[in-house]
Amino acid sequence: MPTRLLIIADTHVPKRARDLPAQVWEAVDAADVVVHAGDWVDESLLDQLEERARRLVAVFGNNDHGALRHRLREEERAVIDGVRLGVVHETGAAQGREARCSARYPDLDVLVFGHSHIPWDTTTGTGLRLLNPGSPTDRRRQPHCTYMTAVAVDGRLEDVQLHRLFQRAVPGT
User: Fold this and answer.
1) CATH for 89
2) Is the residue at 172 inside a domain?
3) Residue 45's closest CA among 27, 23, 25, 73?
4) For the Calcineurin-like phosphoesterase domain, which residue ranges apply (predicted)?
5) Helix crossing, 43-52 with 22-30: angle to 10°?
């Protein structure tokens, strides 16, 4: 059976939005694994995702402090249906990212990262796939808030899709 992944990052709840958009919560419910690449901001969203997700693979980001840093790691790894997945919040500047990540993560098939709020999907010369889902709550200079879904099956990552959210998240208080 293929394993359905939801890939999110930079949720910034409740600073940028009071909650995740309904479309993202529906994707949480549909996913076998939720991957979160950091910048939660508040621990309550982590609690909610731990309760609702079948499995959560997550890291803290540069805007995460206190309990989030005690509960999460800076880097996380998991093997999902044969896919060697890594998660980290920051990878540095876009220029040279492929070479840096290939050198740092030679044993991974996929590296999920966040921080920039800019969707990214490339494959390095060594075959490492780099994915940034953007942000479902804070589009910054992007045209839309975004998240990704994918399917892991027999050691391959397939059907990677970037989803655009057309309904704005409710701003934080």
Assistant:
1) 3.60.21.10
2) no
3) 25
4) 4-150
5) 40
Query: How many residues appear in the chain?
Result: 173
Look up tokens 């709840």; give the residue.
13
Q: How many domains in the chain?
A: 1
Share of the chain above pLDDT 70, in %: 96
Is pLDDT of 167 > 80?
A: no
CB contact at 8 A, 91 and 113 = yes
72 domain-assigned: yes
Could you tell me if residue 115 is inside a domain? Answer: yes
Q: What are the tens digits of pLDDT across the range 25-73? A: 999 999 999 999 999 999 999 999 999 999 999 999 999 999 999 999 9
Range of the domain at 101: 3-165
User: What DSSP string runs through 116-164?
Assistant: S---EEEE-TTS-EEEE---SS--TTSSSEEEEEEEEETTEEEEEEEEE
